[in-house]
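anyone seen this seq b4? input:
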Amino acid sequence: MEHRPLAALLYAAAITCQPVLAADRTEPERAMNDRSAHDRLLAPWPGPYGGVPPWDAVTVPALGAAIEAAMADYLAEVAAIAADPAPPTFENTLVALDQAGAAYRRVLTLYAVHASNLSTPEFQSLERETAPKLAALSDRIVQDEALFRRIEAVHGSIGTAGLDAEQRRLVERRYRGFVRAGAALDAEGKREVAAINQQLAGLFTRFNQNVLADETARYTLLESEADLAGLPEALVAAAAEAARRLGHEGRWVIENTRSSVEPFLAEASRRDLREKVWRAFVSRGDNGDAADNNAIIAEILALRARRAALLGYPSHAHWRLEDSMAGTPERAMALMEAVWTPAVARVREEVADMQALADAEGAGITLEPWDYRYYAEKVRTRRFELDQSLVRPYLQLVKLKEAMFHVAGRLFGLSFVPLPAGAVPVFHPDVSVHEVRDAAGRHVGLVYFDPFARPGKRSGAWMSQHRSQQRAGVVVTPIVSQNLNLVPPTAGEPALLSWDDATTLFHEFGHALHGLLSDVRYRSLSGTNVVRDYVELPSQLFEHWLATREVLDRYARHYRTGGPMPEALVTRIRESLSFNQGFATVEYLSGAIYDLRIHAADPDGLEPRRFEQDLLADIGMPREIVLRHRPTQFLHVFGGDGYSAGYYSYLWADTLSADAWEAFVEAGDPFDAAVAGRLRASVLSTGNSRDPAAAYREFRGRDPDIAALMRKRGLPA
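predicted toks r here
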């Protein structure tokens, strides 16, 4: 993934804020400036709010040097803890380890944000070099025998050391994490695990960069106005701007990213172009060229299986799910199987409705995957008198941003104060920053908001914790970011969102609130540092407030007239929320089943394309749907270990979130103060300081009920 449009390089130059162009400096000047920036990246963050990321000092060379120095400093701090002559205690071992590596975490935040948002060719080179080193650093810490003996000693005396519940939780989580990473292996086993982790780090980097390459270099060029049939004005304008940026002035480009492709598939009348755009999108990483990911997938699976065996687990899936709410692959699969059959049955109904409509129109076609979204919108329009062209003018990004802040204020007493441009450094001109305050006006944290797609930014949407909250020793307030990939508006026009875009906006803000409302002592237990199948609970729950009457009445305003969304349209939106849930559930769930099954399979001789085909046939995948993320572009699963054998967690967490929302429904008010107070006290503020199942029971008064999930999705229980 070496090629990048010029725009990516311009964006990278903009965030460095250097007084002169690099090409105009002498070598000594460049060295001096890079050294100065390197020192700034290592230092505690300067500025207000407990310090802010120094984006005005970031250059790729400085970042590379700072990472090397920060890793060395971190290892020295850990070595000092391991060599402490005093007997191991909770404070001198566990707390000391929790606080160690502050400079490393600061630099790694800058590195990670750069990787996700500003992936230039220069940075990609650094990333390929750095990823294995980061993996090696983690292994050196985990495999430090003296350090592990100290942790083991504290863990062994946990019952007699007079520790409170949160302190015991920190001990248990740290000890368990070390053991699961191989700290108890013999020397040979440790060496092999470390080698595997470094190989995986390099493969993950290559996988991510290959997907980004296909999203950047491959696109569909529309040559004439006839190619635009059915497309709304906003999408046409965005396609024209993309064409101009890519050197095709006067034509239109549909970029190979979800934010461009899905609206096109839902709106474009030209079936041949829908197929062309769809094929380009689903074949990312699967084109038999330098960016093909099939061989990388096979290598990743083999390495993960070998690592699991070394650690004493039957498979990678068993290793990953041991540290989750589900606990075992069997429990996770049981939930998915309970939902799969009714979801497929609903797809059959949806396909029949769409095929009947296509037949009535005389289309003379049999529905294919590139037709699903298009005809689903036609059915939606007929059934609910609702299409995106009616909804989108009322969903202005600026208003919906106000809406999500309003909901957080009503539920939790938070206010969001925009900082003036230039008040703090940002990593791109699109980014805005808000200070978060509580009901008493006290500082809570900062939110960096980055809404638009651009070259060098990875696809999808995500929230990041730039700084985690803590109260141990010095009080540290959180800094979070909310990142989306909305199609940028044309000059002078507002950004208008689809309903799905608006839902994603609220989803990611739910993650942000999880980080902002954290109130624990220890950094590693704060905010979103929870098990994978619990972390999506706040985000999926927050989506529900978008469709509340208060939000739509106040913030769904027509971008030209300023008028409110008509009551009839609000009603139709709410009635349609469970529409097309067969498709949405099957598209997602098939990927989750694939993820769990392939990580429980024997990788010896496994051929990724064949496995995908055989699995989909085995589970009865409807022919009109493909995986939401086909394997060669499945960043959740093969772009890192984070969601590997854990993509099911969205469904597990949605079981919790659907049940949690019904607590507000039962109270008769989506802003009920008592329910919101319990949600904050038991879920949002506790991070990983307690067992998630116990925390949820405290909020709800019982375990979650899967029937709530089926009701939310309109599926038979």
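The chain has a mean pLDDT of 93. The first strand starts at residue 219 and ends at 222. kinda curious what u guys think
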